[in-house]
Amino acid sequence: MLNEWLLALARWLDTHEWSTALHESLYMYAWIETTHVLTLMVFLGMLFMIDLRMLGLAFTEVPASKLADRLDRPMMLGFAVMVITGFLLYYAIPERTTQSIWFRIKVVLMIAAGINAFLFRAKMLAADGSWDEDRRAPKRMRVGAGLSLLLWAGVVVTGRSIAYDWFDCNKDLSYLMYWAAGCVDELARFE
Amino acid sequence: MDVYFFFEWLDNSFLATMSKAYGGVFAVVQMFHLLSLALLGGTVLLADLRLLGVMLRDVPSRVVVASTQRWFDVALIGSLLSGIFMSSAVALKLYYNEMFWAKMASFAIGLVFVYGIRRPLLAFDHATLSPWVLRLVAVTSLVIWFTVAASGRWIGFS
Amino acid sequence: MSRKTLQRIAVGYGILVLAAAAWFWARQVQSVIELLRLAYG
């Protein structure tokens, strides 16, 4: 049901003139894609430094919450740019992206990373700087920081993989893969 | 000086056999390249924006520079190793790609700058250096690494 | 190297790099404009 609904949405977006124009543009798509990738340096770069601080591997002389606070704004700015350019990239090629197994894993990983970040922030605020001067954050926080690094690395990996056509719906895949990628038409053939 | 022979050699090397035969391996290596890019760009941004007085103004610039240097080195090694592997898959094509040479040139300029000028200079007490020199160093660094990253991404499009 | 010499080298190198980068990027922008003109008139 969800797959049909998502596909219908993608097909509707695909009828938009702007979507086609973007996809077939000489430069626009490549520029947006480049901006998306280069902004990794802002968003992920800041995130890496914060997480490495929690793990005691960088900026150990700076109080943890101070670093997290100062890097928060540039990080979120980078994130905003990535969301906007990311949406445009989806908008340019909606149908194939909707049925991309990589895109689906990426969205799940991002939701997980978001929940992790939310819990991390809540715990850090609750601690009210009690471990701020420590070289390393408490163990629970370190787990959160490590998880954050892993999840976002996973987002980059799956994001890059969207470009590869290994598991596209038009390929000969197993039922499980069709199901996971939401290949509605191909699944119908199994019934 | 013609370096075509190097690309020919790379194209015939063990690395090329692997990177061409296994698309999956190539993809994984490329992801390491991307993660290194994020780390490298992050450290460059932090240190240079601190020198420009944009970010982390209440943390001594010496601390910011010292903390980012180590991870810059890690990112550099990561992107270099993954980059060589990626090059081996399309070595002969790269030789004729203008953007590839733009990237290599700016990369070489960046290496000389970082290890020959920026680091030795920033090893001095920052307070004793001219603020305008520090600003120029920061802007130069930002421009170099942006050019490396952007021309690098454009190799694939050109 | 003395602090003074190093600062001078940094300034010289920096100016050269910025000039080269300006030339490089101006050339890229120019080629983009040319192609867009060719495509859309």
Structural summary, described in words:
The complex is a heterotrimer of chains A (191), B (158) and C (41). Chain A is mostly helical. Helices cover 75% and strands 0% of the residues of chain A. Chain A is built from ten helices and no strands. Chain A has helices at 2-14, 17-24, 28-38, 40-54, 64-92, 94-98, 101-127, 139-161, 175-181, 184-188. Chain A is elongated and about 60 Å long. Chain C has one helix and no strands. Chain C has one helix spanning 3-40. Classes of the chains: A mainly alpha (191), B mainly alpha (158), C mainly alpha (41).
Question: What is the succession of H and E elements of chain B?
Answer: HHHHHHH
Helix content of chain A: over 70%
The low-confidence parts of chain A are none
Radius of gyration of chain A: 20 Å
Q: What's the gyration radius of chain B in Å? A: 18 Å
Question: Strand share of the residues of chain A?
Answer: under 5%
Count of β-strands of chain B: 0
The largest sheet of chain B, given as strand count, sense and whether it forms a barrel, is: none
Order of helices and strands of chain A: HHHHHHHHHH
Distance between the termini of chain A: 15 Å
General form of chain A: elongated
As for the number of domains of chain B, it is 1
Number of discrete helical segments of chain A: 10
Please give the alpha-carbon distance between the first and last residues of chain B. 24 Å
Number of strands of chain A: 0
Shape of chain B: elongated
Provide the residue-averaged pLDDT of chain B: 93
User: In total, how many domains does the architecture of chain A comprise?
Assistant: 1
Strand content of chain B: under 5%
In short:
The complex is a heterotrimer of chains A (191), B (158) and C (41). Chain A has helices at 2-14, 17-24, 28-38, 40-54, 64-92, 94-98, 101-127, 139-161, 175-181, 184-188.
